[in-house]
Amino acid sequence: MKATAIAPANIAFIKYWGKKDKALRLPRNDSISMNLSNATTTTTVDFSQDYVKDEIYYGNQKMDDGETGRVIDHLERVRRLAKKRLFARVITKNSFPKGTGIASSASGFAALTLAAAAASGLKLSAKQLSILARLGSGSACRSMSPGFVEWKAADSSNNSYAYSLYSEKYWNLRDIIIVVSEEKKSITSSAGHENAGSSIFFQARLENLPQRINKLKEALKTKDIKTFGNLAEEEAIELHAVMMTQKPPLFYWSSKTLEIIKYVHIWRKEGLPVYFTLDAGPNVHLICEEKQEKKVLQKIKNSGYKNMIINNPAAGAKIINKHLF
Length: 325
Ligand code: DP6
Known about the structure:
Blueprint: E1 2-14, E2 19-21, E3 26-27, E4 31-47, E5 55-58, E6 61-62, H1 65-82, E7 88-94, H2 104-119, H3 126-136, E8 148-151, E9 162-166, E10 173-178, H4 189-194, H5 202-221, H6 225-245, H7 255-269, E11 275-278, E12 284-289, H8 293-302, E13 308-311, E14 318-320
Helix pairs in contact: 1-2, 2-3, 5-6
This protein binds ligand DP6.
């Protein structure tokens, strides 16, 4: 009863921020994302009578009980569905540093969901897998489907799942993550979601979002990078305006975040179509089309930044044959 899955992180162009149901992880709004080819988690799950409790490892390192609660809760969900009582050994590894605001919980819970479901013998549809992943971490449901993905908010657990709008081959966008910090963030996004509603801007954001979502979907349909990029930027700034004005306020930006944002605006004025977006962290995601990649990389290097993760649109979570143990 062993299976291994690999899943991508994803970058949201329309962000999930705020929940209407914390336990069920039902979001306040729809969100839209792209899977990232070079920010992945690989996870092997083995259910066996050999284990007297769940054992969770990150690489060779056994994780402390304090860190594993959410993972064990997720294994419990799978055991309940599969009507099995066996404990599991889980080994997981990321292709990128943990806790940097690169969505490690998205790739992590997507890979865990798929591997645990397969290892326990569950036969679930894509929709059921997406719902299950969502219960582990909201953004993880978007990493289950290929390419460009939409997650619907909905009022019940059964109706809140993600699906692919376009495959990973649809549009050769790049997401170049400039890693400005590898430190673990002090406040997790799960904790941040809880206070989103305390920002005076939150309600206005919710009212305005359907319009932005429609425009972004239209720009995606027509591959209009200029409109798409501007909307993604507007959305990222708004997300952080909400974060900075919620109580207590969350400041995920570092001085380097702002420096890069300003560079992007200069590069655009010089005629280079490159845009930025941000997650719950200081790292900046630069969005451009493939044909601009070389120029954008040169600009980044000339401005003194070296630590980058270059991503293409990627497939969703999948089962692989090579186990981690
Ligand atoms: C800012 O999915 O990490 O990255 O459901 O509590 O696990 P939980 O939250 P999580 O939140 C992600 C927030 C975000 C925006 C996004 O990815 O849409």
